[in-house]
Amino acid sequence: MTSSSTLGTSSNLPSLHPASKSTTRVSPGAAHRSGWRRIVAAAFTERSFDVPPDRVMHDRIMHRIGLALGIAGLIAAVVELPEIAEQGRVIPLRWTVFEVLLAFGFFPVLAIVSVTLSTRAIQRTAGIAAVSFLAAMALTPLAYNHPDVEGSSVWLYRVLALGVLAAAIAWRSRLAVGYLFVGSVLSAMANMVVIEDVTFLASVGDFARALGLSALFLWCAIYTRAAADRVDRESAMESSRAALVAGAAARDRERARFAALIHDAVLSTLLDAARAGTESPVLREQADRTLDQLDRCRVETEPDRLDAQSAIGFLRSAVHEVNPGIRFTAHRWSGLDDLHLPVDTAGTIAAALAEAARNSLRHATVVGREVHRRVTVTISAGGIRVVFRDDGAGFDMDRVPADRLGVSVSILGRMRQLAGGAGFVESQPGEGTTVTLVWGGDG
């Protein structure tokens, strides 16, 4: 059963099970297999420094490209249907149906996924569509015993760009380029096997045409994704700069206000007291007014506020100062993201979030596997919700020593003192830890 802590819990994240100090011997065979796994994973995923921290534009582009490619696959299937029927006369019907399903079957699925699911789901579906299309191309020579089709090319040859675009959506550019070359070779071989009177020189020309045309589509897809990533990086940098400038300006104004108060009230009162030498009702009133001003200065809320974009940049900077490898995601609901977050409130939330990240890095390590950490910020209805989650060692809240103050003071205590704020910690041994920070307005 999951243990949870609310604002009043006196607990501490350092009770997370620490990593064992003993070393484990790894056999050469296991190390070799692990190396191959890393190579394959690197081929199918993007490098961390290529991934913008907040991929709003990238996700939007991926959804639109996925939808367009799914619809294009349907249109291509309809357009090629007469040629498919003509070339399928010389082979059993089951081969034709199987090839059509392999080549076009996943494109309608891609269109639906692009409308309803996440970018990761779009990439996985596009990867399946690309592999399925390549399998259809590879099976084409097996379906025909000898060249027995009239025409200039097999029908799959003309729609190779669909598979290449699916690969460009699903994988990194290097793997997509490799897919382009393999697909061009297979399409030329299919023409040689299926079409009558195709010479070797003609096959070389088929390969060059397929490669050139599909390379144009591939370049457009890669450039579009790169441009979207560049926009996201620039937007994140601008948000971070805006938050830093707003915070610096607020601090400067606060220093100036406090300096004026010290000069105009405190020092003036002390100087009058030194000159008077005796008790005076006027001096007593002046001292009372000065003390009231100091009290107001202590409790007044910072007037400067951050909008949604600046608040996201502010929190992202706080997390990435602790560790740039922590994944950061932000969600803003259109029409409901009119946030006015006071700078000092943002600073409190950022400090609590940074402490949660530090505790996770310090105590959530699991021997033998990588611990994933993620921050999700959601802005809606004038409030903000920040969730830090890891899949690390976890801990039992009931066994946290009372003298450990990391969670109870540095995270929950900060949020408890924040007007309109709340904080929660949930954890279970072996299942990671979740820290939730919410702010819904000034009380």
Automatic annotation (TrEMBL):
InterPro entries reported in the protein's UniProt record: HATPase_C_sf, HATPase_dom
Residue segments, region Disordered: 1-30
Pfam families hit by this protein: HATPase_c
Keywords: Membrane, Transmembrane, Transmembrane helix
Comp. bias intervals (Low complexity): 1-16
Residue stretches spanning the membrane: 65-85, 97-118, 125-143, 155-171, 178-195, 207-228
SUPFAM superfamilies linked to this entry: ATPase domain of HSP90 chaperone/DNA topoisomerase II/histidine kinase
Span of domain Histidine kinase/HSP90-like ATPase: 350-438
Record has rRNA-binding as a keyword: no
Protein name: Histidine kinase/HSP90-like ATPase domain-containing protein
The organism of origin for this protein: Nocardia callitridis
